[in-house]
Amino acid sequence: MKRVLLAMALGLSALGAQAVEMGANAQDVYAEVQKADSKVLFVDVRDPLEIMFVGFTDAVHVNIPFLMVDKNAWEDKRGVFKLNQNPDFVAQIKSALEKRGLATDAEVITMCRSGSERGEPSAAFLRANGFPNARYVIHGFQGAALKDGPQAGFRLQNGWQNSGLPWSAKMNPAKMYRTDLK
Fold first, then answer.
1. Where do the DSSP E strands lie in 23-133?
2. Per-residue pLDDT tens digits of the chain, which is 182 residues long
């Protein structure tokens, strides 16, 4: 019985370590990307339409959506357009790594709006598909929504935008996911 409990405890601590290890705060990611010898691929995994309305940081190397908006399919339950996984996500990440002279064991850091719906899942997906050092930006680009007060529901805490890191309402067309160039 002691061995079973010990194995369970070790297993749970390993799971916790993986979750902590996979997440990175925005300031640390920015510092790493700014290094001249950085061996990181920093990927904005949001749909370009979202970036167009929310903002962008030119610190990312490329925009490769993990989930893309399907404007032909509506989800009544959530009241939003359906999101479909980008079927070429892994191939596009590999291509972006190759362009930077990096292998699949390089650190790939993904960032979405909040970190939870696409950031963490995209990093986990990459790890499951041969990218052992995939990570994500905790709280994503916009950060977490306030729970209380007159601005409850607004994303005004943590995340890239709220950490004093560079961002703009303008998109960099050279870094954006574009189907008009294929």
1. 23-24, 40-44, 62-63, 67-75, 80-85, 107-111
2. 444 333 333 343 344 444 338 999 999 999 999 999 999 999 999 999 999 999 999 999 999 999 999 999 999 999 999 999 999 999 999 999 999 999 999 999 999 999 888 999 999 999 999 999 999 999 999 988 889 989 888 788 889 999 999 999 999 999 999 989 86
Tokens for 140, please give them: 């994503």
Nearest of 171, 180, 146 to residue 44 by alpha carbon: 171
CATH for 131: 3.40.250.10
Domain extent, residue 59, equals 23-163
What gap in Å lies between CA 177 and CA 58, rounded to an integer? 14
Residue 155 CA neighbour count, 13 Å, CB half: 16
Residue 170 inside a domain? The answer is no
Total of domains in the chain: 1
Joined together, the tokens standing for residue 125 give 């997906």
Q: Which of 86, 82, 39 is closest to 67 using CA atoms? A: 86
10: Cα within 13 Å, side-chain hemisphere: 6
